C-alpha cells in the first residue's frame, strides 16, 4: 500500500505543540513508515510551509525533519494533464470545490493519486487526510486514523 499524505495530515505532523492527537499522529506515522510506502506531495509542502512561515512557527523545523522520513513527490506533466481533466469534470458536474481562478491543490493531489495508481498496478494507493469532503470525489481517501 502507498499512503499519500494530504496537507491536513502534513500540517498536523508539523505542529510543534504537544497534544494527545499530535502524539497519536506521530505514532501512526512511525508505524506506517515501518511497513509501507508513505509519501506526500510538493504541493502539500507548499501549502503547509507557507502557513508556517506566515505565523513564524517552529513547525518549520518539524516539517524539515519530515523531509528525512517521507518522500515529497514533485508535480510532473502527467499530473497537470490529469488535474485539468478533473477540474473540468468538477465544473461540468457542478461540484466545483474552489473558485475557478484559484489553483485547486486538492485537484492536483487527486491527479497525483491517479498517476500513482497508474504507475503502481496491483498496489493500493490511498490518500490519508483529515477531511474527506473534496478528495473522495476523485480519489480513494480515508481519515488517517482509519488506516
Automatic annotation (TrEMBL):
InterPro entries: PIN-like_dom_sf (IPR029060). This is PIN domain-containing protein. It comes from Pannus brasiliensis CCIBt3594. It comes from the Bacteria.
Amino acid at each position: 500500500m502507498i499512503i499519500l499524505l494530504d496537507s491536513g495530515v502534513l500540517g498536523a505532523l508539523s505542529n510543534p505543540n504537544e497534544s494527545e492527537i499530535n502524539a497519536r499522529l506521530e505514532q501512526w506515522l512511525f508505524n506506517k513508515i515501518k511497513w509501507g510506502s508513505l509519501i506526500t506531495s510538493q504541493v502539500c509542502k507548499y501549502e503547509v510551509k507557507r502557513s508556517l512561515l506566515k505565523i513564524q512557527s517552529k513547525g518549520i523545523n518539524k516539517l524539515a525533519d519530515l523531509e528525512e522520513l517521507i518522500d515529497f513527490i514533485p508535480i510532473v506533466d502527467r499530473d497537470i494533464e490529469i488535474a485539468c481533466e478533473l477540474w473540468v469534470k468538477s465544473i461540468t458536474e457542478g461540484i466545483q470545490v474552489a473558485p475557478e481562478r484559484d489553483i485547486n491543490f486538492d485537484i492536483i493531489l487527486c491527479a497525483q493519486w491517479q498517476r500513482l495508481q497508474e504507475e503502481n498496478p496491483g498496489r493500493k494507493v490511498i490518500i490519508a487526510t483529515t477531511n474527506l469532503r473534496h478528495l473522495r470525489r476523485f480519489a480513494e481517501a480515508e481519515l488517517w486514523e482509519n488506516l
